[in-house]
Amino acid sequence: MDQRISFITLAVRDLPASRRFYVDGLGWESAVDVPGEVLMFKVADKVVLSLWDETAFEAEVGQPINRGGGVAPITLSHNCATTDGVDQVLESAREAGADPVQTGAEREWGGYSGYFADPDGFRWEVAHNPGPIGQEVLP
Amino acid sequence: MDQRISFITLAVRDLPASRRFYVDGLGWESAVDVPGEVLMFKVADKVVLSLWDETAFEAEVGQPINRGGGVAPITLSHNCATTDGVDQVLESAREAGADPVQTGAEREWGGYSGYFADPDGFRWEVAHNPGPIGQEVLP
Predict the structure, then answer these.
(1) How far apart are CA A41 and CA B96, in angstroms?
(2) Chain B residues near residue A71 by CB distance under 8 angstroms
């Protein structure tokens, strides 16, 4: 199995709410938009973020989604070249309606990052990582 | 906020088990490996998959992880050019110890896919998507 991810799929409760946040709020451009089913965004070369209606997700995966308390065990990170860039992106997310937004902070791993929640509570990390791996992911 | 994902971070319970599956089983090459903390793999141009010890994840994100029954509301997809390719990757995952493995099937959205679980139960989709968006993600 090649070391490769093509799609990141998140199961979402309310696609119109996702559209309002990602398209109207953040200004992202969808690559696929099928109301009531799925909303897709290109997020890297050959990588697509897919927001999929949770009912269809459960039917295909064949398992119920974990709906207990707490956050999903995943974060999606958007890395920036500077700490100021991190603060600006967090502010943009706040203006787009992200809630909660955890402001930027110095981290034990040597960088600076904050978090925001999308309409389903999925946590996005906005990070400046000065290490080699952090530099490699920058545009 | 640019339309861009740099890292996909999964909170994992047992990093040695993750290493056995992804490195020893699937044969992936890590970009960063800090025992007890984190294991990272390059999975696309400027995109890194990070498996992070769940205790550190919870401490930084500031919320407990949802540990109820069911699956996490996310899948990572590995797309293939053919349906035979899908079957072969699913078999490789099975040989690497993935459990359960859901064999390939024709899907309502027009493609063919199966799923396997990693050691933490995260579902990977192995898919052939003949549509335009599915072709764009292929190597």
Answers:
(1) 31
(2) 61, 63-66
Q: Quick one: which of A3, A109, A108, A101 has its CA closest to B26? A: A3
pLDDT in tens, B86-107: 999 999 999 999 999 999 999 9
Q: Do A6 and A30 have their domain in common?
A: yes
**Which residue in the set A2, A47, A63 is minimally distant from B5, CB to CB?**
A47
**B109, B51: one domain:** no
Is B66 inside a domain boundary? no
Task: Report residue B112 as tokens.
Answer: 């063919």
- Tokens of residue B20, six digits: 């056995």
Chain A residues with CB-CB distance to B66 below 8 A: 66-73
Q: Which residue of A has its CA nearest to B62?
A: A102
CA B104 to chain A, closest CA, distance in angstroms equals 11
Q: Is residue B65 part of a domain?
A: no
Query: How far is residue B39's CA from residue B19's CA, in Å, rounded to a whole number?
Result: 8
> What is the reported pTM?
0.98
Q: What residue numbers bound the domain in which B135 lies?
A: 73-139
Chain B residues with CB-CB distance to A89 below 8 A = 1
Residue of A nearest to B74 (CA): A10
Contacts of A115 in chain B (CB under 8 A): 61-62
Residue A69 lies in a domain: no
pLDDT, tens digit (0-9, with 9 covering 90-100), for B44-67: 999 999 999 999 999 999 999 998
ipTM over 0.90: yes
H or E segment to which residue B90 belongs: helix B83-95
Total domains present in chain B? 2
